[in-house]
Amino acid sequence: MAKHLLERLRPWRERIDALDQQILDLLNQRAQAALEIGKIKEAYNAEDSILKPEREAQIITHLQNLNTGPITPASVQAVWSEVISACRGLEQKLRVAFLGPTGSFSEQAALAHFGHFVEPVPCQSFDEVFRLVEVGEADVGMVPVENSTEGAVNRTLDLLLNTSLKVLGEHSLAIHHNLLTQSGSMEQVQRIMAHPQALAQCHNWLATHYPQIQQDAASSNAEAARIASQDASVAAIAGKKAAESWGLQVAHAGIQDDAQNRTRFLAVGNIESLPSGNDKTSLIVAVPNRAGAVHEMLAPFAQHQVSMTRLESRPARTGQWEYYFYMDLLGHQEEPAVQSALQALKQQVAFCKILGSYPCQD
Question: Which residues of 41-61 are buried (b: 16+ CB within 10 A; e: fewer)?
Fold first, then answer.
């Protein structure tokens, strides 16, 4: 039976080998074409960013529309993100800053969004991510902005307000928290460590299963995993990537309170994304402290039929009970309807900062 099975499999395996060779040849041709584009830009002294968010999004969307299966649209996106990353990396490796150390969810989001052919730049804080990108020590940064369970990441909101960086992309990541220890057992554990957001996302599970164990905050889940790798009395809440990175075992898997737990990340940098055909625009506004001001702020979007997908308020810290409003709109700021709505909005508000327009992640 085994011999008969091998005979049945052999022609299909040979077919796969032949197709793989063709794919490899085509990938090399694509890479060479990308290098030629780089040479042309250099010849014309075109000071152009190696990263083109709108062009990359258009390539993937076009291929998804052409796809007839059985490969899924999500698989097309995953494969071509890596193809684009590999070709981009032949010209210049993109330096990507994120909250580290290695194994963090921020790193996972960064690599999923920009591909693995980048130069990772792990940082100790969100502030450092923004600072390194602002001064040019990293090309782009990836930071969490909101979680489906715990809401906004306030430090990211504050940094978006107070720095010059633009939003150039978004990535939504499913968050699966695990309790990690050196041995895979909780017998020696005296402390559970994680980023405050992760502790909050696992609050009910921890209260039910380990109410007696002290909980301590860490700068990131990956940092908690690093500490746990050196201290058998510490259990870390982190993803499986952190377990692999720091040689830890899973004591309990999937401990997040919400099974559908997701975090939305934003890619930030010093470039502006052009229209891709399926975009989102983020902005921050503040309104005068008078009756009806918030209603007037929202009216231009209804008037120009611009959909708003997110509205978040954050205290302005002036001591006057004033707030900044963080908004996401469907459409690029260069599209006529969005442009008209933004022009009308600026007449109604006391402050308006457009954070950027960027391709939507469907």
Answer: eeeeeeeeeebbbbebbbbbb
